[in-house]
Amino acid sequence: MKKLIVFFSILVVCTVCYSFERFINYSTPKWVSDIKIRGNTVLAATSGGLYRYDIKTGSGKLLESNALSPDPFLTSVVYDKKGNIWTGSRDGYLTVRNSKEVVKSFTSYFSSGWSINCMYQFGRFIIIGSNKGLSLFDTEKMVAHKNATRFKSFLSSNIYACIVHDDTLYLGMDEGIAKLSIGEVLNGNFYDPSIWITDTSVLKPVSSFLPGRNIVANNTPSVYYKGKIIKVINNDTLLAGTKEIALPSAITVLKTGGDLCWIGTEEDFFYSWDGKKLTQYTIPGLSFDIINRISIDKNGKLWVLPRVRGNIGRWWSAINSYDGSEWRYYNHHTVPDIGAFGEGAQHLGITVDSRNRVWFGFYGGQVKCFDQNENSWIKYCLNYKTNKFHEFNEELCGWGKSDAIIEDRNGYIWIGVWAQHGFVKYGSLLCYDQRYKPDSSKVTPQEAHYRRFFPEGHTYYSENYKALSVDSLGNIIAGGTDGRIIVFNYNVDPLKNGINVKNKFTGYGMVLDMVSMPDGITKIATVEGVYDYNPLDGSLESDEDAYENTVTFEIEDENIIWSGVKGTGIVRYDLVNGDETVFGRNHGLISDQITDLAMDYNKGVLWVATESGLSKLTLGYSKRMEPKAESVVYPNLYSKQKDIGKRIHFENMDPESKVSIYSIDGSFVGEAVSGNITNSGAYFYWIPSQNIVPGTYIYTIHTEKIRKNGKIIITP
Is the peptide bond before 70 cis (omega within 30 degrees of 0)? Predict the structure, then answer.
């Protein structure tokens, strides 16, 4: 990757060693694969971690993925003879947790590609059934004692259930039952598949066993409860004698403990049944698996936009937020005013504005804005029948789509607009002055507070602008699904004066994402590759060193940029020495199917959105600042001939400052960009435009408490 100008340094005390120990992963706990009951404690192995529920107190806690066991999708849970808790995961992590909550994880199954499907405690051994065979793990020596990968004439080695009954080990498999005496299990030659006895006469695949006088195999979950066989019929219905109990999603596991029957499901956590009453137990956490986009607000709260079909109406089809301790869901169930998300699943528009309001664009569900200060939602309508933009009205608004939303440096909201209604195609980009409610009854854009640009047939029309960015010079860059990229700016008021398109590029493939860096370079990911736009000379050049299938970017600091590469993972580029480091599933990343990245600078955390959940990478730095010196602005005088393209520096600033530059007549010219924070204060800089007119300019430094003015002299 080409070197970029050093531009941005916000955090210090950065460690140089990155390892998978820093990954913490999050996925939805709605799928319960296994349940164990001991006394008043219920353990549920979920798709989002281990959930521990206390029957007596009625309280529970999700023990999420940790750095030692990064796969949160647990498939099985058992106690060993000392009372330690063992869990197995879909990716093959075997983890033990003792009474002091000390956790140790074993990665040999993961490294070998063994997905753990089931576990059974027998003496000092944990019997492990996987997609590739059987293993005996010695809990005293903490090693795999022996493994079996072939079972007589069975073609498949996939094991779904395992149980010891009458001194015989039974395995439930795709083609039936494989069994072996315990003596042979402990002492036999596992490399010889002929030692196994197989039975193909049962219902297949075998997923559960009912121990009694004789072992009974079933191809669905089943259990004895109060003298009756309870089993699953029709995937989501229990049959208890003649009684049928329907559940909202597929049943995954049945267990008994005390006077209750416990029921795990795919999408609705787990239940208990006392023979009469069904009680649901919900688990707080991420509500869905596949993530489209993420963003961090000014308080460090993570906002997560799902890939779900919103009109289906399931509880988990929701915007999620996470403040570090609590997950919250936002959909028409929890917030009736929010409305539908739309029938599509590719919800892509998301941004946090300067007022800490969060904007969302949905596939068919229009545009929504959450005002956190007012705890209220505003719905906006892109009305294609009338070419109007206004707050949502059920009678006037229907289908609407926005894949990109961003706020520019002057507070205008720019929205990529799906531009078609029937055969009528209006402007594909909308500018909205969010200080006011849109008033579609007005004629002029200034009075209506919005303006649409680029109708069909216009030189800059794109059917769908799905990526937007604002660079350090105030230029707005828009990329479309048709491979069109435009760069434009405006003079003071885009509603009144319109916009000035500086550059247009076509034929670059669908634009996926872009990030603009304060040195002016904008990196653009397309299906054809990665390109760098330089506003100083208007060039768009291919980054030949970038990974194929790069889909997203995020900036860490003055030296580091991250790329999300689908099928590979995340790539950390050191722009000073050219080093790159790749992190994938082998390093603890939840998935290498990356969809988005977001940096929490205050906490020193990189969030990674994937098609299997979220990964959180702690970067190992902290922010600190002890202002000591007076503010300094230089160079001042600034020569247009000698210095153009260089920075004007503002040093020793309050980190909460905003620095604005105006012409002598009061017209807004630009805004300085925040850089690093040192013991002397914060650093900002401004790069004057090549078209800047020599003269006197006023800079204003203001925070919530102070306002300070000064002059900058620009000479020819």
Answer: no
Q: Dihedral through CA 675, CA 680, CA 681, CA 683, nearest 10? A: -30
Average pLDDT value for the chain: 88
C-alpha dist (Å) from residue 310 to 22, 345, 683: 33, 7, 44
Largest CA distance in the chain: 99
Residues in the chain, pLDDT under 50:
1-21, 423-424, 622-628
Number of compact structural domains in the chain: 5
pLDDT tens profile 410-465 = 889 999 987 555 544 566 899 999 989 999 889 899 999 999 998 888 899 888 89
Same domain, 557 and 613: yes
Indicate whether 383 and 531 sit together in one domain: yes
Provide the CA 323 distance to its chain's centre, in angstroms: 14
Tens digits of per-residue pLDDT, 383-392?
767 778 888 7
Distance CA 709, CA 700 (A): 5
Alpha-carbon distances of 522 from 468, 502, 661, rounded to whole Å = 11, 14, 23
Burial zone of 227 (CB within 10 Å; 0-12 exposed, 13-18 middle, 19+ buried): exposed
Q: What confidence score (pLDDT) does residue 4 get?
A: 35
Q: Please tell me the number of Cα atoms within 13 Å of 179 on its side-chain side.
A: 19
The CA distance from 697 to 667, in Å, is: 10
Q: Domain for residue 444, yes or no?
A: yes
CB 565 within 8 A of CB 581: no
Range of the domain at 597: 291-618
